[in-house]
Request: fold
Amino acid sequence: MSPLNGARMLGLGVYRPARVVTNDEIAQRVDTSDEWVRSRTGIATRRIADEEETTVAMGAAAAEKALAAAGLTADTIDLVIGATCTSPSQIPGAGPQIAHRIGAGQAGAFDINGACAGFSYAVSTAADMVRAGSVRHVLVVATERLSDYTDWDDRGTCILLADGAGATVIGAAETDEIGPAVWGHDGSRPEVIRVPGYGDNMFRMEGQAVFRWAISLVPTVRQICERAGVAPDELAGIVPHQANLRIVEALAAGIGATNAAVARDVVDSGNTSAASIPLGLARLLDTGVIRRGDPVLLFGFGAGLTYCGQVVRCP
Ligand code: UT7
Reply:
């Protein structure tokens, strides 16, 4: 038997809050319209969590579904990585609380705050730990409750932000199914996406600056394919962070992913930061346009200005 030197996603699970908020509902409070929001962002609706749907509760629900999909129980998990920038408290993080809630009693637990790139950073970290043999199974849980940081009077951001969670179990495999990560940052511009704190605990963004930066990442996305040894036209799917449909489509078109199904979950789910990639991936799998084993490019980008992506085989 070949040694298990590779890593792969063994299962995926997501949680979408029950409450659907339309653009018309937002337009009752700020000066905007369904037509403006759809044409500038692609967003038609978003999910907003209720009081019980905390970052931890949503993450735990997604984690349990990922475990079930992987055919594993919580006691086989060695490590839980929370990928979140909206932990209910700065201290403690969400990871240990999620691990406790699902009964992963043997697991280590911590958070990665890679903002909207957090899922890809956590997947890469988990895969490297599995390949190194220091853990058997890692649960990566991306969970966000951006509504806690939304200024509902700021029409430049409240139309985008949303809540939700997605999780995956990463474990050993004979063939490696998680490609090398390509990542980077531009920490010289913290002001373009931030939650300032100190009297203003709301999400603030210079939308146009972020938009231009995101579009300029096309060569980076091409590099992810090169590092994985997969040509863009061989991709079955592409799941960029669901920030804005125009950005998603520009990235997919820019690299020439001509045969790939493009995740457009932002249309129904809004921008859920780190959770948006697993939510988008799950949507493509659920609709049957991609299948287990297909090569899919994941690419997160956001505050920091951090980015991270990899080509994975679908769970
Ligand atoms: O997940 C983190 C990463 N975040 C992103 O990637 C977000 C990237 N940025 C964006 O998605 C877009 O920049 C926005 C959707 C936020 C804004 O769209 P835009 O096409 O860049 O609009 P803009 O900021 O250039 O504003 C154009 C006009 C302005 O009015 P004036 O100054 O031209 O009179 C804004 O005040 O649109 C106005 N505007 C709105 N109008 C109606 C801004 N927001 C709204 C709104 N409804 N919701």
Summary: Residues 32, 36-37, 40-41, 116, 155-156, 159, 193, 207-208, 210-211, 214, 243-244, 247, 271, 302 surround oxa(dethia)-CoA (CB under 6 Å).
